[in-house]
Amino acid sequence: MKRLEKWIDGAPNSSKMISPVLETLEIESCAKIILLDECHPHPLVSLRIWSCIGLEYIKSIQGLTSLKSLVIGHCPSLSVIANLPKQCHSLKSLRIGYCEKLTSLPCEMFDCFAFLNKLELGPFSKELDSFPSLQGIEKLRNHLDYLDLRGWDHWESIAEEIQHLTSLTSLVISGFGMRELPVWLTNMSSTQHLSFHDYNGLKKET
Fold first, then answer.
1. What digits encode the pLDDT tens for the residues 6-32?
2. Do residues 46 and 68 lie in contact, with contact meaning Cβ atoms separated by under 8 Å?
3. DSSP character at residue 16
4. Which residues are registered as beta bridge partners of 195?
5. Can you spell out the DSSP letters for 18-71?
6. Residue 49: what are its φ and ψ, rounded to 5°?
7. Sequence-ordered alpha helix ranges (H) in 72-166
């Protein structure tokens, strides 16, 4: 499927779902695909979009309300992710990263995926001065237990919103250019595993 250019509604103008027994879909190394649009109901449990260098726009995945795992990564041309499934309570794991043109996350993301257990985000566009806003992530505080944030060395801070994640047990932060660790990290009493990677500018205690 290397010549695939568009994935638009597996069942257009029809009430029938494409492959009703299909649970896992991987779209990988489809260099020419530029658009993904799937708004019709579909029973997919796992969707992985990986290394599609021409993918520019995810117009809609509203129909994928049964997802448990969603991965979007290494898509350097991707600039827009729009129209997520409404209240997809089944989604437990979400990974979005290494999308060098992506400058913001869907504003409704934390409303749609309120029962996430595992979240991995970044890095995104180097043109940004800091990590994209995580406003609303506190809505995951009763369920999210693993968070992995990846940045660039000119991003000197991490999103303060994560301090409200009271159920978080594992936090991984890598690639940022922070010189000091934020004080509020010490107040995250539920966090049992805390990892920092690739911090060349972090000050050491003397």
1. 555 554 443 344 567 889 999 999 988
2. yes
3. S
4. 172
5. SSTT--EEEEES-TT--EEE--S----SEEEEE--TT--EEEE-TT-TT-SEEE
6. -115, 115
7. 109-112
Within 10 angstroms of residue 204's Cβ, the number of other Cβ atoms is 4
**How many angstroms separate the CA atoms of 196 and 43, rounded?**
37
> Regarding beta strands 57-60 and 146-150, do their DSSP bridges make them parallel or antiparallel, or are they unpaired?
unpaired
The amino acid at residue 89 is H
Q: 42 and 18 in contact (C-beta within 8 Å)?
A: yes
User: For residue 186, which phi and psi values (nearest 5 degrees)?
Assistant: -75, -15
What tens digit of pLDDT does each residue of 20-71 get?
788 999 999 998 898 888 777 788 999 999 999 999 999 888 889 999 999 9
Which amino acid is present at 161?
E
d(CA 16, CA 64): 14
The DSSP call for residue 164 is G
Instruction: Indicate the pTM of the whole model.
Output: 0.88
Give the tokens for residue 186: 């010490």
Give the Cα separation of 103 and 191 in Å (integer): 28
Question: What is the distance between the alpha carbons of residues 110 and 191, in angstroms, rounded to a whole number?
Answer: 21
Spatial CA neighbour of 143 closest among 174, 113, 121, 167: 167
Q: Where are the alpha helices (DSSP H) in the chain?
A: 109-112
Q: How many residues can be counted in the chain?
A: 206
Contact (CB, 8 A) for 44 and 66: yes
> Distance between CA atoms of 117 and 104, rounded to whole angstroms?
21
